[in-house]
Amino acid sequence: MDSERRPGRPAGRGSGTITSDGCPVEIYAALPPHGEADIVHAALPAGAAVLDLGCGPGRIADPLVALGHRVVAVDDSPGMLAYLQAAEPVHSTIETLQLPERFDGVVLAGVLINTFDPAQRSRFLRAAVRHMTPDATLVLQRHAPGWAEAVTPSVWNDGPVALELKDVVRHGDGLVSATLVHTLGELVEEQDFTARVLDDTQLAAVLRDAGLVFDRVLTHDQCWVSAHLPR
Question: Of 2 and 165, which is predicted with more confidence?
Answer without folding.
Answer: 165
